[in-house]
Amino acid sequence: MRARVAVFDALPVFRLGVLTCLKDNGFEAETPDDVLRWTEVQDRAVALLSVCEPPDWDLLADLCHRRVEVVVIALLDEPTVPAYLRALSAGAAAVVPRAATPKALRDAVEAVLDGTVILPVTVLRAMASQLSAASTTPTGDPPTPAEIDWLRQLVQGSTVAQVAKRAGYSERMMFRLLHDIYERLGTSNRTEALIRARDRGWI
Description:
The protein is α/β, with parallel strands linked by helices. It is 53% helix and 13% strand.
C-alpha cells in the first residue's frame, strides 16, 4: 500500500496547489486541519510541513519525534544552508524549498518513500564539515556486524522495509533499531549516521 501524504501550511491556496501536484502524480494526499492528530492514526505516512514562522520549528521538532512511522518533509520558506541543517537536526527526513517546482516536490516525496533523500551539495558539505569538527567518540557501544550490514544496505539503496524483511523484523521495529544505532553513533539522523559509518570504514 502506498503511503498517505498530508500537506500542512497556513495558506489554503498553497495547500491546494501542493495537494493538486501530489494527486496529479498518483499520491493519496489530503490537507487535514490538525497535523498532530493526523499523525496519531497513520501507519505509514509522509507529512509535508511548511516552516515559515518561529513556532513552526517547534511543531517540526514535535512532529518528527512523535512516531517513527510518519516521516516529515520540511518545506522551508527561506531555504538557507543553516535552515536545512536545523530542519534535518530536528528530525526532518527531507527538506525542500517551499517555492520548489512540482517535479522537485514529487522527487522528494518519492525519495523518502524509497528510504533515500535528495539534498543540495552545499548542505551535504556543511554536514560533512560539522561531522569532522565534532567529537569522533561514540556515545555507546559500536554497531554489531549485523547492524553494520543494515547500514550498508541503506547506503546501497535498500528501504527500511527491505532491510527489516531481510532481518526478520517489522518495519516499525527496524525504525527503532536504526534510531538506536544513530544515537549510539552520536548522530541525530540517518544521513549523519551513514556519513559517520563511512568515515569509520564500516560501510
